[in-house]
Structure to design on (680 residues):
């Protein structure tokens, strides 16, 4: 289906990434946001609070991030498309409810505009150091999707993608922005509503008597339902059977937890989002994501100018990790350079996926600003030496 | 057959059965526990208030009382520890035609969830909060909670509690609740009536139910079993409707003031939201359509 025109601000805009992300949520059909102020993410909900009363929806500023991250899930079970927005310390507080969304298969979006950490860290400066936290931060085994925009335009586009994927797979989706992408202002084109594809919630067509809340379809994803329709369903964070009732057996745990992992297999098998350029003849590939991919671009251009065959692989969907693509890439090039605004997080995934087929070189940065392209260039040159 | 046998017709139906998921019975609660009694009262309140059960949702946190949601035959949500109220807030805001009941324990609502309680009361969010106060963390083995009275022995206060407890009804009133009552599990009729009242009352409503935990609280404090506790409640409870909540604090073995303390009208969250938006935006204000048939 297409976007509801009431939420779509069609036109050419000059927006920062935070505001563009907000427009993405509205275009995607989000009509509920719960937030708590935290730099550098607050502008997303500030704009939502400003826009939503004329679109028709609810913004509520909750008392903390714990409340925001569960209020949105209440709204989803009430029938809403909903999201919350935060940064580092707030993201840490939201971890429990990312787990709750995972086990209850609540489709929703968490926007994390990353800043330097740990703890209060660098409130106004960028980092990409929550990447592992996004995947592993809540306890237990579960799976989710994380997307990394590298421009305000992508903050708009990928937010819509994020909402659509949340509905398709019934997982929490992490929008892993960073302070630079959130605060940089660029041209953002918002298309006509009928050019924006929206994945509708897959509500069950079964009667309450036939319906089991967590009975998966062939794609391993169960159909959705909302409160107030007579289904009298039960949702719990406890390990549960297909009726949604708690079941503390090894068998139920095994079946549920494996399905939560397996339903995202399409992502590791070809659905991953990425951007590849100049890889056909490349002897070295730079694997990057988010703001760092734009600095890496400069380094790749400089390397090419010196006659070094460098190519770009930009990760857009960071989780599930695009391991097949990296595995194939590693067979094709001599070395992979991985710059990121952390002390080496996603590089571990790259190394694991490359499985020794190519040399993997980490270009870490503690955060606070972006890399100097010369540093990445140096790593590229050393890689081919 | 003993002399006191009662003739029950074979086709008799327990009047609360339509409100419970009978396939999930037996429940997990201990003999003598008061939670089942409160659920019975709740079922009767649903019956008497003639609530449209399709439009009643129940939200619980974690703990013994947190399990209530799983036994009520309603749209039910067993959420995370302390977060039943913010979950219920989202549910209510997305789908205002739902009557949202929060049913949880004293530790869940007032320690880990205390912040959410006061803010929902401040907003006068239209939630019906029922707190079974067994004065302890029961699910985890009987630790001190935010409502455990002075001098009580618990597993984490083996030499006696010395921190002052919250007076839950005073806290609720101060934070802005529209309705505040307290009963014990001895007062089943009154409790049922209070529950029925809040199903019809707008705004943030709060009922505290003092309830026994014979397995952990009563046993460790040598207060007898479930039946002894009923006798104790009968003996020490004083019904004082409208009593100042500041005078309703609990002690280990002293008077338990019960009754309806607060019943007032404050504008609800939606009323305040609509009024403010109409004032500022006029015709540009679009009424929230959050829940989608096909979104």
């Amino acid at each position: 289906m297409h976007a509801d025109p009431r939420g779509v601000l069609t036109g050419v805009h000059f927006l920062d990434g935070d505001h563009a992300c907000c427009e993405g949520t509205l275009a995607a059909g989000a009509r509920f946001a719960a937030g708590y102020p935290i730099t550098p993410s607050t502008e997303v909900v500030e704009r939502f609070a400003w826009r939503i009363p004329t679109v028709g929806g609810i913004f509520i500023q909750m008392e903390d991030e714990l409340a925001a991250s569960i209020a949105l899930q209440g709204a989803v079970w009430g029938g809403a498309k909903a999201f919350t927005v935060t940064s580092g310390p707030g993201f840490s507080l939201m971890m429990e409810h990312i787990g709750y969304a995972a086990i209850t298969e609540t489709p929703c979006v968490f926007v994390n505009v990353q800043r330097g950490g740990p703890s209060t860290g660098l409130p106004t400066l960028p980092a990409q150091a929550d990447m592992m936290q996004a995947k592993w931060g809540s306890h237990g085994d579960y799976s989710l999707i994380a997307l990394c925009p590298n421009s305000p335009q992508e903050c708009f586009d990928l937010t819509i993608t994020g909402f659509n994927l949340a509905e398709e797979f019934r997982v929490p989706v992490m929008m892993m922005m960073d302070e630079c992408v959130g605060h940089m202002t660029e041209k953002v084109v918002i298309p006509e509503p009928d050019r924006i594809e929206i994945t509708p919630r897959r509500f069950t067509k079964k009667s309450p008597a036939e319906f089991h809340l967590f009975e998966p379809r062939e794609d391993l994803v169960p159909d959705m339902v909302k409160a107030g329709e007579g289904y009298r369903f039960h949702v719990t964070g406890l390990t549960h059977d297909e009726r949604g009732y708690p079941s503390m057996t090894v068998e139920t745990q095994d079946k549920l937890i494996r399905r939560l992992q397996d339903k995202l297999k399409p992502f590791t098998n070809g659905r991953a989002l990425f951007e590849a350029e100049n890889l056909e003849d490349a002897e070295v590939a730079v694997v990057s994501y988010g703001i760092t991919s734009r600095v890496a671009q400069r380094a790749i251009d400089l390397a090419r100018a010196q006659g070094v065959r460098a190519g770009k692989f930009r990760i857009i969907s960071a989780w599930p990790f695009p391991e097949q693509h990296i595995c194939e890439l590693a067979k094709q090039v001599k070395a992979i350079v991985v710059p990121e605004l952390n002390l080496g997080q996603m590089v571990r995934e790259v190394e694991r996926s490359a499985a020794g087929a190519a040399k993997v070189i980490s270009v870490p940065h503690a955060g606070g600003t972006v890399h100097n392209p010369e540093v990445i260039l140096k790593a590229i040159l050393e890689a081919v030496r | 057959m003993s002399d006191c046998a009662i003739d029950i017709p074979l086709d008799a139906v327990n009047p609360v059965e339509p409100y419970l998921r009978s396939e999930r019975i037996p429940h997990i609660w201990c003999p003598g526990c008061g939670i089942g009694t409160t659920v019975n009262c709740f079922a009767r309140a649903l019956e008497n208030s003639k609530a449209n059960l399709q439009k009643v949702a129940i939200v619980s946190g974690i703990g013994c009382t947190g399990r209530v949601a799983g036994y009520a035959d309603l749209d039910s949500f067993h959420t995370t520890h302390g977060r039943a109220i913010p979950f219920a807030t989202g549910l209510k805001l997305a789908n205002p035609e739902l009557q949202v009941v929060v049913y949880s324990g004293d530790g869940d609502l007032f320690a880990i969830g205390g912040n959410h309680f006061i803010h929902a009361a401040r907003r006068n969010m239209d939630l019906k909060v029922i707190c079974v106060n067994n004065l302890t963390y029961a699910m985890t083995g009987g630790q001190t909670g935010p409502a455990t009275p002075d001098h009580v022995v618990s597993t984490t206060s083996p030499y006696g509690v010395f921190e002052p407890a919250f007076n839950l009804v005073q806290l609720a009133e101060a934070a802005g609740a529209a309705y505040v009552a307290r009963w014990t599990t001895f007062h089943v009729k009154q409790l049922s009536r209070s529950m029925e009242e809040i199903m019809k009352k707008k705004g943030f409503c709060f009922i505290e139910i003092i309830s026994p935990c014979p397995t952990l609280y009563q046993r460790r404090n040598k207060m007898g079993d479930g039946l002894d506790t009923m006798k104790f409640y009968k003996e020490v409870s004083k019904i004082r409707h409208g009593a100042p909540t500041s005078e309703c604090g609990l002690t280990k073995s002293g008077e338990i003031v019960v009754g309806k303390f607060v019943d007032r009208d404050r504008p609800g969250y939606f009323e305040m939201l609509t009024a403010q938006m109409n004032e500022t935006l006029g015709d540009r204000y679009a009424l929230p359509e959050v829940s989608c048939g096909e979104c």
About this structure: Chain A is about 40% helix and 20% strand. The longest strand of chain A covers residues 108-116. Chain A has a mean pLDDT of 97.
